[in-house]
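job 3f2a | input accepted
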Amino acid sequence: MLTGEPEHFTGRVLDDRYRLVALHGELESSSEYLAHDLENETQVLVKILDASISEDVEFSRQLVADTAAATLVLHPFVEQVLNWGRFEDSAYVVTEYFPGVSLQSFLEGGYRLTPAQSVKLGFELAEGLSAIHDQGLCHGDISPSNVILGRNGYPKLSAIYLTNALVAAEKGRLEIVGTGFAGRSSDYAAPETISGNHSPKSDVYSLAVTLQAAVGGLFPQEAATDQPHRNSEGETTIKVAKAFGPAQAVLESALAVDPEYRSDVTALEEGLVGAATNFIKPAPITVPDGPIEQMAMGRVNPRAKSNSVIETDQMYWRPVWKLGGLVLVVLALLSAGTAWAVSSVRPQGVSTYVVERYEGRTIGEVRAIADSVSWILDEDQVRSDELPSGIIVTQWPSPGSRLAEGAMLVVEVASGPRLRLTPLVLGLSTEAASARLETKGFEVDLVQPLYDENVAPGEVIKLVIDGESALGGTLREPGTRAVLIVSGGPVPRTVPQLVGLDRENAEEALEELRLTIAQPVKLENSETVPAGTVMGQGVVPGSLVDRGSTVSLTVSAGPDRREVPDMRGLSVPEAERRLAELGLVLGAIDGAGQEVQGSEPPAGTMLPPGAAVFLWVPSQQ
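job 3f2a | predicted structure (621 res):
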């Protein structure tokens, strides 16, 4: 739909807010436009996705959920997601306008970063990636094509909202026919993604590969032709170019093949910051001049006409006015011809009547008038928010004309208010979804909670209208009642009986319910309960708690025992003081010497508190 007509949407206004100014870029199943936000008077970018993917239920649901989460990511090194919606049959996403070029274009142009520049770029992007992970999102497609080098000297991670939605679509009905999007480059994907596993550490791997590619390093697949490389801990990892110097080990840790041994984003960020202190401060990354930069600066697309920005009223009403005028002219000619033909054959003396102004009158009145003078009444139904049903909106011929008996009077009759476009509310909070529906003229009839292990509490899971699930984009009568099915969060957990279990089994029982043990675990000595056994729990068994809650435990440390110290060479007073510190007491002293030569029981023996220890202090003579 977008391909082949790149300027098709230029000049349109989406959701009464975003005016599309010029085409900014084209991909396989989407087009990106430079747009003007009429509400905030700012420049933004609008990505319009093709209808073939936008109408997929799983894609739409995941896109809304991730876009809603992405709007909460506010970080200077992450492309800010501002809004989303539906336009005709397509979904669209609004992001900030950030002049720059992609790292992919930069590299394809023959440019390369120095290791110092790559390290600086790395810890900046790692900061942004950390902010993404803090919102529960995984980027899923970090590569040079999704890294923007800004003209202001700072980079940004882009497209943080799209990958998960595409994966969700591929798992559904689009698994066979495809999504229409080019697949993620395997050059930057972590090994575990091949089996469908993805985590924040997969993003760390992709970022490390991207940094190596930025200096012209080998991809993991190319490096695999070398002998397997192991880091200082003996784990298999991807070998990094020696040019990275102090950052080499940091990047190799991020490129561990097994995600269990791979560094997380915090470790990568801290490691790169530490390594940067060993580099000379790098020169700023200079974005080259070129067509991409011209478009980023807001200049009109070279393929676009000079008047590519079309006023909305011109776009929608001027062609209609011209078409309407043409229709009136044709009708007038036909009428004139018909009148001439009829007048040439009909009997003389047929009556004609003056056409009055019927606009604003009821259709009942006009029907009575037409019947009284034998006019044929042609009624066209139109919708209007200004007039009630049954009121004449327009007429033809105009008032003052004369119509003969048997001639046709054409009127347009208001049939009710204009239909309302169902808004997209999946993934919104209950309050935001209700407000959007009410703004569009819908009524929220009921908010029904439904437990869901994956969707945050209060987030809309489904919109139900007339008993059926509804997505945005459908025209409906104003006042239509809608039911919001919202997440009630995870099912509450019933706290199990933990007293009597050993600590390991108690922890497993809680993990099965996705509950955790409060830290630190309280330890108490007991003469009767074996060490490591749970003696008490902070939440009564059978209580209902939220998923992720913590339960405090009291675990037996076993009998209270004190170890007899080695007191050889100490004086008697020193030995007595040492025993007192341990909660033991001095017993009988055997001998009249000055230094302790031994004890009973001997050193290393475990005794209960208050037990007596006998000393052997033989005379040295």
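job 3f2a | The chain is about 30% helix and 25% strand.
job 3f2a | closed
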